[in-house]
Each structure stands twice: as structure tokens, then as C-alpha cells.
Amino acid sequence: MKFARIAFTLCLAAVCLTSLAMPVQLFASDPATAANIFMYPKPYKMAELVLQTPTGASVSLNDYRGRVVLLHFWSINCPACRIEEPLLERLKHTFGPSGLEILAVNLVDPPQAIATHAAAQRMPFPVLFDGGRGFSLKVVDTGGKSTAFVLNPAKEAILEVPGFPTTYIVDGRGSVVGYSIGPARWDSGFAMGLIQNLLADGRAYTPGVLRGGPKNASAGPHSR
Asked: How far apart are CA 171 and CA 140, in angstroms?
């Protein structure tokens, strides 16, 4: 019941966010706003995040240093997530060979349900959940508005997840540079240019790193 309550609350929040964002995107003159992608004035260091794949492999975000990572928070019963997934899949197909990774993080559904769903849907990116590592998603009420925070094992809030989907953009240095709440236009010129520039910047200071990376995270039936 706890998993279902959190997932329902955040999926409902995502529906509201999506309905509010769509008119803005239709009339936005700023390419970033039109794509529903927002950049931080200054990158900040991403906190440690250690999760598990359906095959039992342990994955740390630090394993992806030198790659550009989209940290994509989703849930099984999230209509907006299903809208966004094909765009993310095409983005991975285009930029994956150059060093883009998309990590689909689910901290609200039961692990077995996540594994079954990922296998049935043949999700094209690594699917991660807590698996006893001590990371969780806690819904809080902030003045009548529900949001949620990713808590680490020390119960410290390291990321906010206002609704599903929420995606954080992490550069090759392991710094968060931007985010999206609700489906983003990952096929837009702004998004494509952003990823391309981040990848080029990563290659400038991490030569050879892109040939490596975690061996277990992308293996198995959940990647293609």
C-alpha cells in the first residue's frame, strides 16, 4: 500500500504539471522552455546514488563518470512516462554511442513488479531500484503542495522529485546541470544541441573513459 500511495500521489502531480506545462510550451519563444528543459545557473555536484538492477548488479552514479547521464525517475502506472519514453529511446539511439546514458530509476514500485514490467516492455535503458541500498522516495507536504525527495541512507534529501516523470541531466564531471519535470521534448533542437555540447565537453577532459563504464548495468533483456 505504501508503494501504491506514493506512486499515485506523484503520478497525479505529474498529470497536473503536464497539463499546466503544455500551453506554455505551445506559445513559448524560449527554446528551453518550449522543450520543458530547464538549466541551473551553476552546475552542482550530484550526491552519491547507489542502486540495483533487476539482475542484482549494484550500480553507482559514479560508475558513469565521463558520460552524460539522464537520471530519469518514473513509475509503472505513469501515463506521462509512457509518452516520454519513445523520445528518450530515440535520444539514446542517437547519442548512446557517443557517451549518453539514460538510467530509469523507480523508487516507488515493488522491485519484482519493476523487473517484470521492464522485461515485458523491453525497456531500452538500464532500470534501477533501491534493492536494500537505503535510498527511498518520501512524499512531503510543503504548504498544501505535495512533492517528494530522494533520501539517502542517512535520510538526507539529495534530489527533489515533484512528479513523474522527473529527469535530471548530469554531465561527465558528475554535476547536475539541468532538469525536466513532466515529459520533455527530447527530440527538439534545443535538447539535441544540449546533449551534443555536453558530450563534446566530456570528451575534452576525460579521454578514453567512454570506452569503459559499468558492464552489468546495461546487460540483460532490459537493454537493446
From this structure: 28
Look up the CATH number of domain 2-211. 3.40.30.10
- How far is 149 from 136, CA to CA, in rounded Å? 8
Domain spans, the chain: 2-211
Q: Would you say 167 and 179 are in contact if contact means Cβ atoms under 8 Å apart?
A: yes
Alpha-carbon distance 174 to 47, whole Å? Answer: 9
- Starting from the edge strand earliest in sequence, which strands make up the sheet with 157-160, in order? 136-141, 146-151, 157-160
Contact criterion met (CB below 8 Å) for 126 and 69: no
As given in the structure block, the three cell numbers for residue 99 are 557517451
- The model scores a pTM over 0.90: no
Q: For residues 93 and 101, is the Cβ–Cβ distance under 8 A?
A: no
Q: Is the pLDDT of residue 168 over 70?
A: yes
**Residue bearing cell 539535441:** 192
Residue with the bigger pLDDT between 214 and 96: it is: 96
Q: Who contacts 178 (Cβ-Cβ below 8 Å, separation ≥6)?
A: 37, 38, 39, 40, 168, 169, 194
